[in-house]
Amino acid sequence: MTATNAKTVYSGNAVHLSLLNNGVALVCFDMKESKVNLLSSPVMAELSNVLDQLAVLPGVRGAVFYSGKENNFIAGADVNEIAAIQRQHKGVAFQATQDGKALLAKIRALPFTTVCAINGTSRGGGAELPLWCTYILMSEDATIGYPEGGLGFLPGFGGNVLVIKRCGFEAGMPFVLMPLKAWDARKAWKAGLIDEVVPKANLLERAVQLVLGAKPKKAKRSILQKSKSWLLERTGLGRKLLKKMTLAGILKETKGNYPAPVSSLDVALKALTLPEADAFTYESQAFAELCVGPVSRNLVRFFLTRQDAKKTPEGVKPDVEVRTVGVLGFGVMGSGITQVVAYSDHYKVVVCESFPQAMERGKTLVKGLFDKLVEKGKLSREEADRRFGNISYTDKLSDLAQCDLVIEAIIEDLAKKQGAFAQLGEGILASNTSFLKVSKIAEAGKRPERVAGLHFFNPAHIMELVEVIAGEQTSAETLAALRIFASKIGKTVVGSQDSPGFIVNRILAPYLFEAIRLFEAGVPAADLDKALVKFGMKMGPLALLDEIGFDIAGHVIQQMNKDFGDRFTAPRLLKFFQESKLLGKKGGKGFYLYDQNGKPQGLNPELLAQQGPASPRKFEEIQDRLALVMVNEAAKVLEEGVAESAEDIDLAMILGTGFAPFRGGVMKYADATGPRVVLQKLEALHQVAGENYLPAALVQEMAASGRDYCRK
Amino acid sequence: MNGNKVFLIDGARTPFASFGRSLKDVTVDKLAAHAAQHAMARAGVNPGQVDGFILGHAFQSGMTPNTARFAWLNAGLPASASAYTIQNQCGSGMKAINEAMDKIALGHGDIYVAGGAESMSTVPYIYDGSLRFNSWLAKKLPKFFPKMGPRLTLGLLQDGMAPLHLIKDTRTVAMAHTAQRLADNYGISREAMDEYALRSQQLAAQAIASGRLAREIVPFLTKRGVFSQDEHPRQTSAKDLAALKPVMKTKDITPGNASGINDGACCVVLASETSTIQLGLKPMVELVDHVLLGIDPEQMGLGPYYAVQKLLERNGLSAADIGLFEVNEAFAAQYLACEKLLGLDRAKVNVNGGAIALGHPIAASGARVSYSVSHEMVLRGVEFGIATLCIGGGLAIATLFKNVS
Questions:
Q1: Could you tell me which of A189, A493, B126, B329 has the fewest CB atoms within 10 Å of its CB?
Q2: Interchain pair A672, B76: CB under 8 A
Q3: 0.90 exceeded by the pTM?
Q4: Which of B46, B77, B112, B221 best probes binding to A when mutated, by most A CB atoms within 10 angstroms?
Q5: pLDDT tens digits for range A489-526
Q6: Is B267 among the catalytic positions?
Q7: What is the complex's ipTM, to 2 decimals?
């Protein structure tokens, strides 16, 4: 967006001030050498300076705030700066938000109309700044949202209070509470958060009109709505009701593990009752408490390590430039991978599948995935069809010879994989194996240095994690190429050595294994799942086993048994699954029964009969037993060098298994518990629960030194 | 002292608040945890590495058992650190540090967090528990009343800081009288006391203005905003001080020449020589030796004289070898008596003001004087320093520090 015929008054690194002939001042955010605008502290300082100039500039009738970027207004604060604040005491966080508010209050204090014209994504601080203006306009395709909740704190630049003041509690609270999904312009307009939705081309023009006295077309609220909000917000009883209802919703969602939404609610209620200045102070207090708390620190660390993992590796240049990607095998994984690659629109995809039936089934699957995106409105029909057109099909292996990268996703059988690799070309060959040795497969390839593992997680189109596995001979260039490829298709990469189960499955296997053993020992299934959901896992271990399927879980445990010996001797129950052909969710029966749509319908009575006499345990005991077995295995993964760092393990476990993000991952959880307490608990568990709890050497070493597992 | 060398790595304290002001609604465990966590952060030590947390806490105000343990766990710190609470009145904070010293010297652990915390604003009102059994009602209902366990009891409550039966007891609570006695014995005039009190206020004001005290403090966020500076020091003059009336039926002891009633906490991190090397910690001072002794309770203020003398003697030093002193200012009269007996050079004592200006949150003071003298020794490049306190009940405590920075 640009404005012609304006006289430049000030032009800095990120903020620019100019004046139109008609007395309308334009404040433009356009950060040099950055794709998006950030509200970092240098930018804030510049903005402060510009606002001071604006206040004394003669002949100004009003001001428009807009962005010079194509599709971005302001992407929010700089998370690195927040991380730096978190390392200090609460007072620093409090002061930072108070200062931020004081700065933005200068916008409101200007003696004329101010209009914020939002032309694209507007997040965090970028969604708070507009609230200090008289009017807010949004272009049709713009979105606005507070991702703060996802980082464990709340909007601290007045956003929490001002949203409630602007559009009331009922409409505003959902906006403050949603951490992941931003609102589009229309939704924000309906809620009364913004004043008008404008076609993108007219955005600036309309903003100038508003400054010059035009009135915006606000969403109308009925008398009924108005009186309802009055009753709820302006009466003590009403507010009590609001609090009760909202809190119940929050606790259901967060299981009490995330303090930010509860604080947000508190601040919102204070916004209804306290004088504004006091409500602002209260907001800053709440921000400071949350910001330096462990939950927020863990979430910020997760955010930053994830960001780091997406960066292109430095130093090593790949020796193959990937343009065409071959996918060998069109099963569930193959089709998921195909869709992800085709959707990214960076590559042509060639799928090879020798069974016509499987080919058809795969095509339908991929088509279905694209259709779903269209249904959800994430992709237009034409765009979906075009990207679907990135895929071509063949039944001959030789057609993959020209591909720069071939991802193999056929049956887990060493001989078959080797057979295929022997016939493929000189490009990079990546196997999606979950538990075979990549180095063994590589032996069959023409150039073993170009063979690596590329382990996607099921469902591949959703799961963000990809493990890149280095075989014994894999070259650094190949690994670099795969990292670049994975981040281009939107995945986050964690590197792993070629060791059984790699990182995620290796750590997850004992967890599931011990869950089965606890179930066998008579711990009620519902307790097992509830305890771990309360711990913060996305789903309980038994529900997860159903999801994975007992065939696969059985394979993994058998393989672990081969690789690691007796400590993974298949539980009795697993044999029962295999004999009675219980598959889990996909077969409609596992620990739970499922209806046609995959909704759980209560416990499976067949399994209950296999369980020992009921022996309920305390939730804390179940949590200890299942979480610490992961810690112990993760310590082994770290000491064996399978994973490079504790940070990698944490990232992989959160993204790959849904390990409680607010705990920061398996290793961060160990640090929070304390390395010495971890050892002591493992020693105790070893007495009752067997070899998986025999403390790893690293666990002993860390306990002796008391050092933290994590460096960051 | 024999055994392993012990070093003070770093520390932190809350700003000290006046009674019933900035920290009036903050529980003692929160104050203690704040000081401990920031001390560890400044020292560069992981909570998981800490072998123990020893906390001085003179007036049980937390309404929790073992204040040290409760504060540690409540702050979400790893359970692997041992924890206990020391009650030694004004000596509590220093005694905690001395305990940690001994443990490390004996090889019972490598890293300790030690200090003191006091929330005098929240010292509970108390009620004699034996009334469960001896009260009129208990005697009327013998089958019912004495058999009940802990319960709410209504009745006459007493202030836990000064229960009625002790309010005039000069051996435990009525410390002003012991100070007056020293003034009488050693010929210390009201003018000398006020002059010394003014010095304390002036030096504290300078130390605040220069940012010297801010080096020790980590600000505390309260409901009313960021509390970042000691609030007890006040602007005063010789004239103002002279106008104050004596308290508790003494002749010369006024609120102006006595220490205050305050809230605050201070903690330091101590480490053995081995762990200092292994972890690359940067120590400020070595803790060389310490003394705790008993004297006549009626002259408890003379304690520092005896304690320092013993400490010097045991280490083959004389007062002239000591570059800096922190002598807790319970009362100006009490300090002046010690100064006279020890022949102290005032220029080397309490150079940033003392408890008369900064306040005296009982258990926190012992840790504050230790931490403060360490800081000052590093800043001035002084070789030896001593911190010492008199203790109600006729005890005295002192610690000898050696600069290693």
A1: B126
A2: yes
A3: yes
A4: B221
A5: 999 999 999 999 999 999 999 999 999 999 999 999 99
A6: no
A7: 0.87
